[in-house]
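RETRY 2/3 - previous attempt timed out on the joint model. Re-submitting the same 881-residue input unchanged.
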Amino acid sequence: MSDRLTGGTGTSLIGGTEARSSRSLPVLLIPIAAVGAALALVPLWLGDSRVLMSVAVLGLAFACYTIGFNLIFGSTGQLFLCVGALAGIGGYGAAILADTVGLPIVVSILVATLAATFTGGLLSFVAVRRSLGVIFTGIVTLIFSLSFEALVLGLSNLTGGDTGRLIDAGADTFLRDRTQAYYLMLALVLIFLLVHGLLRRSHIGWAFRALRDDEVAAELAGVDVARYRVYAALVGAAMLGLAGSTYAFTEGRMSPTTFGFGEVDVVVLVMLAFGGIGALFGPVLGAVVFTVLDEVLLEFGQLRVVVYGVLIIALFLWMPRGVIPTVASLWGRVRGLEGSGAAKSPDSAAGNLEAVSGESQSAE
Amino acid sequence: MLEVKGFSAGYQGNDVVHDVAFHVAPGEAVMIIGSNGAGKTTLFRAMCGLLSPSSGRVLFDGDDITGMPAERIARLGLRFVSAERHLFPRMTVQENLLLGAYPHRPDPETMSVVLDLFPRLAERRRQHAGTMSGGEQQMLAVGRALMSKLRLLVLDEPSTGLAPLLAQAAYEALGVLRKRGLTVLVAEQQVPLAMAFSDRGYVLENGFIRLQGTTEELAANPGIRRAYLGVT
Amino acid sequence: MTANILDGIVLGLQFGLLAAGLTLVYGLGGVLNLAYGQMAVVAAITVSLAMDAGLPVVPAVGVGLLVGGLFGLLLDVTLLRPVYRRRGEARVLLSLLLTLGVSFVVDGFLIWRYPLKALTLHIGGGAVELLGVPMRRGSLVASAITLVTFAGLFVFFRYTSLGRAVRSVIEDEEGARLVGIDPKRMLRLILVLSGVLAGLVAVTRSMVSPVDVQSGLSITVFALIVTVVGGLGSVAGALLAGIILGIVNVVAADLIGSYISLIILLGAAAVTILIRPAGLLGVKE
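RETRY 2/3 succeeded.
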């Protein structure tokens, strides 16, 4: 089980595999730079169409959200169904701070991000304290999501309620320029990837892997499961808050659907499941594929949703680890290496999704 | 009645029980003895359909029941009373017993036979099974099995969690059933109890059948006496 | 205030019956059916379409309930193998994800095909006075049907051998297998039943206010809230929690506001999970 795809080169590209095979920074930086370079070309191609560029910016925002979710769920198995809400705390928070309270944009973003970070950490802390399993964590965070939506709808003087609000702050700045907004969000994506990648290589990442593979064993080995779960939630929530608030300023407006459960969380879940839960570049792959897919299918209106439903079902039945890990293990098998596709893959999320990924267990 | 051949079973690819073979004839009381971890529970669970065996055959009155799911085997008249008993805690004694007869209509006569055999159960008819003591639960588990068209009763360590007197009482009840013609297969850690009850036995050690014979033969065996009967 | 409480009970009875379907499926099969709201909506839309086609109310409702049950059967036949192969949390997680996908497929299709459809059943006749409060006939008929259904469920689970068999699987699945009960078959039965119950709730709800094509998700959310508070696997719990939450909902909405009352309901579920995960009458694991 220990020797996975060794030999460094393919390791971080494929993602999700034991990164301890090479500690050198370039191995992490190169693929990230490559992805960055590839995505940087997009405005050259789409730059003229304001609509398409908006879609692209949103796609990058979702990539950010998904990286955050990947960190929380993929690394430590906490099913946080409140991605939209945490991003919304960032978005609505920053907007209110900038417009209503009058703080400078950067400060607003900072404070809102801190609020989101704190909330994420709090949710994780409570879940850990009460030993909530995956399902109950999911339900509690779902409840939080729905409550946040209801709150947004209820406090309509601040939030604009159902119709949403515009953001005046930053209206004349570079933020509203589609192309510059794109590069700003792209920078966030790359930074988040870097942070995630660095975390994985650190002792924190080691702890994550340990507690994901076998929580009891990790505890016995001295890993404070609770603490690392909260760490993951803090960092992930920070990413969500930062992405949400930044995105809000580039858009200039928001409504409950910008950060709603159905609009954000479900999409993020599918993106990550597709790209690969736990894989470093999974979120990017998922975000790109589904943003493009959504655009292509736009003319079909509601039937799009049917396609997503079918995709969710197909994904979780046949490729629950996502594209990147599945491809990685297939590739490994082709190369005749040991351990590929083995039962305990650290690519999948907490034990449960591992069990979901095709392990048939006889009674007990 | 029951024939097991070349039977191996385990968890996630690792066999715990290896190439086990034994048989039980109608009317017999047969024991499988061994210490903790010998594989008795795994053997029974795999035999009775709660676990998939990796190899071997189980024949019940000539019918091949290898790998059949537990619910089907139970309907054929082979009732397994596991060490955990698996009663229905929030249902009454009465309801637990009635369920034993599933899917057939509960026979009032059988019910009264069971309640005669276990008067304590009759007293606590309307009590929830989960609130009863260990001894009562064991009685209920056996009683529940008796409600069916039982042909073979398989028990995994019926003495589990019972004080010595209660364990003895349990075996006495089984003895009464035996006299009425019931065929019984029992796995037991407490060897003296099993020996007092059974005609024949097999010794399971580390997943292998090491020894077999009549109870007298086994009781006389010096190795057995040392290991299981505390005789030096 | 009395009016609010009575309205709350009317709503609460429906909450309870709705949750009963969801909680049975979870308690018995460890399956969390997130497509539950869509089951109700499909039944409602079917009734509406049947009535459009000229069928009188009662047969139309029958068709709707049948379709609800068939939806359950369909779920069972498709979910059966992959979900049943897992155990415990893995099973819940997979069922949650798969049914989420199903909910999308159904929602997407219905909203695309019948974007404006809704079901409304008018129960004619004037208001009836109850405890000094004029109640709409629709509310009373709906409540009566719900109560009768609960009574039926009670009799079924208590006094029939099939009902006992179902309960036994909820109590101890392995024990049930050991007495010859096939949990898979029981789950199939309960899934069909839950579909019928969902349809029934949709139909009775439409006597009070319209049930439209978009309500799928909110129905599922309410069912989930009541299920969590009542206790996973307990029909009595669903009834109790339903009535309590129904009253809370109406009273809070009247006194404070509808968004806040939703937050209160959500909060109640969250508090239950945090303080007493077994719910009001659920099994303490």
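Residues 1-22, 339-364 of chain A have pLDDT under 50 and may be disordered. Closing ticket.
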